[in-house]
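user: can you give me the structure for this one chain? tokens are fine.
assistant: on it. calling the predictor now.
[tool input]
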Amino acid sequence: MDDQNLSQTELSNLTGIARSCLSQYLSGKNIPYKDRLIELANALGVSPGRLTARGPDAECEPPPPPSHQKVTIEEAARRLGKSPQFIRMALQRGAAPFGFAIKGTGNNYDYHISPLQLDAYIGGQS
């Protein structure tokens, strides 16, 4: 985007990918699936590997199996030795480096905890 002087809104218009999704990709809160990565690369005129930390010649990798895409609040709480409510509040406030919360209707939230980021966080606490 920087090389082509494109804003998130302009890239969103080019690809049809919501600006909020692009923002999450850029912040590292979410990782695009292979088809989205290819779509972004095509819009920017670069290889998919250029958009990842793997380098310009890297091939796209398929997303991890569904069982590895999400950790439950209860599992994260157990692994961290905290209460589920503590984990929910940390995710809602953006204070948890391993996930995030998206406010839904009313007082409802959808939570996402990355297993890789949680493992890295737990490993870094030693």
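assistant: here you go. The chain has two domains: 1-63, 66-124. Residues 55-63 have pLDDT under 50 and may be disordered.
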